[in-house]
Amino acid sequence: MTVSILGCGWYGLALAKTLYTDGFVVKGSTTSAEKLSQIESNGILPYQIKLDTGIEIIDPDFFKCDILVVCITPKTKSGEGKDYLPKLNRIIEITLQNNIEKVIYISSTGVYADINKEVNELTDPEPDSESGRLLLDGEQLFKKETDFKTAIIRFAGLVGPGRHPGRFFAGKKNIPNGQAPINLIHLDDCIGLTRAIIEKDAFGYVFNACSSDHPMKSDFYQHVAKQGGFALPEFIDELKNWKIVNSVFSAEVLDYQFKISKWADYDFN
User: Fold this and answer.
1) What is the pLDDT of residue 149?
2) What is the SS3 assignment for 125?
3) How buried is residue 77: exposed, middle or buried, by Cβ count under 10 Å (0-12/13-18/19+)?
4) Contact 37, 100 (CB under 8 A)
């Protein structure tokens, strides 16, 4: 089976390495020619793919695959949000042209606003940020296609190698909403859940990808800062807007058990 991963960043490259080790033919893309050697050094077939308006670089062989994993972000902080949906429309067009039958689209739990309650895949998303709205629109673009099947993964906050959470608030003071529950997922579970979707052919579903452990923000970030030897952050002891992200389908459909089930027991070092 051949899997093409559009966007070999932090998650995409780690997924590619795992699938390659598991015996898949893996194709990986980057927008930068300088990163091609890094992809290739891990046994992954490297491709430069760029879908910017007016600066398109496409290698048709990349899209000859059984499963396409789309893991590109809206990049709203750098002002590139307006380009996101046109890129997705172009990806869908190419997917149809190449008769790709299955797509995994990476979204985010940012499609849920902080509405002071628990949410799951059966909850109607109400994004309150530009990136959340773009990701939800992206989900809809893939959902409406009937010529291929799509699995949508909504990742919570990402932690793991290279993303030690102890760094996130290290040394900061008067951080608001210290009592709010956290919603995070470790890279190992990002990959494990994706792998389970492929193994069980679980397309046609939306999966919230978030640990079921939701300690208070202040407790968690002070613990991991201390664990990593970072300056301890100081939080305001208050509870403002919050959410707890749960998943129905990771257990029901995938029978997936999260590798990191209790954050207090995990060593990020």
Assistant:
1) 98
2) coil
3) exposed
4) no
What the block records as the tokens of 113 is 């606003």
Rounded Cα–Cα distance for residues 268 and 230 (Å): 12
| Contact in structure between 138 and 88 (CB atoms under 8 Å) | yes
- What the chain holds in terms of domains, given with CATH numbers, is 2-164+183-215+244-265 (3.40.50.720)
Q: Parallel, antiparallel, or unpaired for β 102-108 and 67-70? A: parallel
pTM of the predicted protein model: 0.96
- Overall size of the chain counted in residues: 269
Q: What is the pLDDT of residues 148-175, one digit of tens each?
A: 999 999 999 999 999 999 999 999 999 9
| Residues pairing with 158 in the sheet | 185
Sign of the Cα torsion 156, 161, 163, 165 reads: positive
The partner residues of 48 in beta bridges, in order of sequence, read 30
Whole-angstrom distance, CA of residue 65 vs CA of residue 45: 12
- E strand segments, the chain: 2-6, 25-30, 45-48, 50-52, 55-57, 67-70, 102-108, 117-119, 149-155, 157-159, 184-186, 206-209, 243-245
